[in-house]
Each structure stands twice: as structure tokens, then as C-alpha cells.
Amino acid sequence: MTQTHYPVIVIGGGQAGLSISHQLTQRGIDHLVFEKHRIGHAWREYRWDSFCLVTPNWQCKLPDFPYTGKDPEGFMGKHAIVEYIEQFAASFGAPVREGVSVTRLRRVTSDAATMFELETSAGVFTADQVVVAVGGYHLPVVPRMAERLPKDLAQIHSREYKNPQSMPDGDVLVIGSGQSGCQIAEDLHIAGRKVHLCVGGAPRVARRYRGKDVVEWLDLMGFYDLPVHKHPLKEQVRGRANHYVTGRDGGRDIDLRLRASEGMNLYGRLLAIEDGVMHFGQDLKQNLDKADETSESIKTSIDKFIGERGISAPTEPRYTPLWHPPEPAVTTLDLKASNIRSVIWSIGYRADFSWIEIPVFDGRGYPGHQRGVTTCEGLYFLGLPWLYTWGSGRFSGVARDAAYVADRIELCRSEDADDEVAVPYDGAHMIEALIGS
């Protein structure tokens, strides 16, 4: 390849980068996509064997490439997800260069022209405009307290977990009860492994209610069209944990109380590690109660929506807890005495945009933007959680964001647009339920 300058260069070949590539291709705009690994790398390498989507397949709506399989109400596994992404890229001949990492991005001026310069593992490239589509989950978080664990104890991050058989013999401690932590703990538990789970403040949601998947109700209620600036938390929602639920076994709730009644050991937040002993907070009951309250509040909002719209829907009883934490709470765990031989850290990721040498970031390192358009003309971000709506970093909403950014690229100007998507239902009570107390 001899061409080193492009009108547009896209960094990242995941669903976001491919979506903007599709939109640019439709508009006849010459561009190139750099992908550090292979298309679908994160889905292929950073998900466990039994992983599947937590949203129904019908929500997979990449540009001009919606899910057309035989199970729209089902939940694709990781291999099907990779195939879906690869088929999407092939459908329009995405100009992707795989195996090329971008190590530096800056603005340069040469011969009175200002452009972007990208230092990559394949050489130096320049572009008039750049789209950063690498998401926001870059560096796995493992706290410094992990250094205090015994040296013979196996430690991995959740993205390294593959299956129960890959873990050492003995009990497993999972730290973190977000979507990944809860699903991994269940995967181990179902396989017959003894599991200990640190439960934090992540909310939960029911899989189905009153005849529909809750995702379908939320879709009808307009939640997935709600722009971030209309959310009660505004930009703060970008840092909130997602509600835990699963698409496994055809889709069902994740009920930690049920798992506890079956033998899974639950604890509150991890506070400290001293001499092989884990110390937990006394907040297990509070965390379980709040997660249940959020789930039930969402149901209340659905009830309200059904009543206001006069929708015919079956009724069903509300959730009844099957298990309650002991009192007083268990606040210590001796790793050796409990035969714990491995720890899985599942407390998330942090973003790393340190390779971008352009002053568009806030004090926390988050890029300042309006719907992906930054204050630096020609620089855009795509695929970030809640970039514009809940679906911005997902298969369900990235197409809308990509079309918007492509329009800005085509116009070659950064302007504030007022073409907000109308929300078909106010959903105020539902929103309050979703953010929890």
C-alpha cells in the first residue's frame, strides 16, 4: 500500500468503526479503517465460552444489516456475534487494515495545511478527518490491593476467563457483581464449582414481565431513544453500572438470592486484604435489596405504561425473595481455610486515550463532545457508552450515531444540531427506576 493520506481515517474496526465505514462508503467518501487485531477481536478473545448477548437478537441493527436469523427473540453466543460482525464488514467491502495499531494521533501543520497525523505500526499516515471508534473499555481494572493476595493464588481479570475447566481446582472468588461478574459466577456455579461472590451496588432487571422481554417494554416506552442530555443524571449516567440479567438458557433473570440458597456464598463489598483474610463491608443486604427494588420499580413503570396505553397484557405476581443474608453479616473470609485457589477480578475497565495528543479531554480523560463531534474540527468519537443514547456503544444504537457523525464529516464542520430524536413516551417514572436510588 503506497497511499498514506486519506480524507478520513477510522481508528477501530469493531461495530462502531465498521458502522461509520459503512456510512462513509454510502456517501462515496474515501477512507481507511485501522484495526489493531482482527475484526471482532474483543468478542472473540475477551468473552468466556458460554457468553451470549443480554439483549435480544432483534436489537442487533447495524446499518442496513439487521439481524435476520431464525431466533429474533434469542440471544447470540460469542461465535455468532463474531460471524455477524464479519458478515457486516463483508457486505460493503469495508476497507479495513487488520493488525495495525495506532500509537499516536496529533494535529500537524505543513505547507499551510493542517491535518491529522497518525503514527502506526505500519508507518505514518495523515488524514483530513479522523474518527476514534475504539470504545471506552481499554485497560482492565485490578486494584493495588491484589498485591496482598498470597503468591500461590491464581488471579485473572474477567476478560481472561474462558470456562470452569480453565480455573484451578478449589473454590473460586469472584469480585464484582456487574453483568460480567454475575454471569461468570453463575457459569462456575452451574458447572458445580464452589463460588464466593463479592456483591456491589449494580442494579438488576427482570428478563421478562407481563408477556414480553423487559427490553421490548423499554423499547416501546422510548428508553432507547432517550438522549443523554434528557436523562435525569445527564453525563453522569455514562459511569453507571448496567443492570445484570442474562440471555443464557433462552434468557432469564440472574437471581443471586436463588444462587445463595443453592450454595453460592455472597458477601458485601471488598474493603481490605490482610494476611490472607478478605474483609467485607456489612452492605450485602442493602445491595441485594436495592437491586431488587430497582427491578421491581421498572415493573411498576411498565404497569403504568400498560395502564395509560390500555394495552392488553397478562398479569403476574411480583418477585418474592427466596433467601436473606444472615445477621450479623459475614465480614471476613480466610482464603486458605475456605480452599479458595483462584480470584477473578470483575470490577470493570478504564479508558486510555493517552495516545491522542489533542486537547479535547476533561479532567478525567473523557473526550469532550456533542454527539461524538469534538471542539477540534475534524475529530470525532464513536462507540462510547451513552455517547448519545443507551445504545450508542451497542448494536442497537450505533447506526444512528454513525449516520450523524458521517453527516458532520460530509459537511466538514462542527456545528451544534438540534435534530433530536423524539421520545414517544415520557417514561419519567421508568427512568427514575432505571437509575435506582
TrEMBL record:
<dbReference type="GO" id="GO:0050660">
    <property type="term" value="F:flavin adenine dinucleotide binding"/>
</dbReference>
<dbReference type="GO" id="GO:0004497">
    <property type="term" value="F:monooxygenase activity"/>
</dbReference>
<protein>
    <submittedName>
        <fullName>MSMEG_0569 family flavin-dependent oxidoreductase</fullName>
    </submittedName>
</protein>
<dbReference type="InterPro" id="IPR024000">
    <property type="entry name" value="CHP04046_FMN-dependent"/>
</dbReference>
<keyword id="KW-0560">Oxidoreductase</keyword>
<dbReference type="InterPro" id="IPR036188">
    <property type="entry name" value="FAD/NAD-bd_sf"/>
</dbReference>
<dbReference type="InterPro" id="IPR050982">
    <property type="entry name" value="Auxin_biosynth/cation_transpt"/>
</dbReference>
<dbReference type="Pfam" id="PF13738">
    <property type="entry name" value="Pyr_redox_3"/>
</dbReference>
